[in-house]
Amino acid sequence: MLEVKDLSICFHLRPPTTLKGEMMRRAKFGGNQPRIPKKEFWALKDVSFTLYEGDSLGIVGDNGAGKSTLLKLIVGIYPPTDGVITYSGSMFPLLQTGLGFDVELTGDENVFLSMAWFGLSKKQVRPLLDQVFEFSELQEFRDQPLKPTPPA
Fold it and tell me: Are residues 9 and 40 in the same domain?
């Protein structure tokens, strides 16, 4: 189960500055530099949902809508500004496709390697291999290295 209740995160943004602008500001004010005002940016505000075992969730939205931020909050990469996240079971944060893959290894070998990062043994991963390749729709390439072989 995963429950997300009233989840919000606020980032504090500073106005962009150039090296020249920063040097001039330091020269003008020395050690008594006024603080640059921060702008609040609420990436997510009051998001709530509950997933039960067997449920699926699709997250769709424009660039900058907060999809990756939501996932990073759920797996604990970012702490929420407000709200609560509770879950039972294990959490596997695979947020970036291809992260940690070795192009010289086969698909099977890369799955074993990736799951080893999460503490799973070959014995635990082996029954999941068919599901991984069925989901990815890459069954016919699972025994091939990720790096393509150039034509002869």
Answer: yes
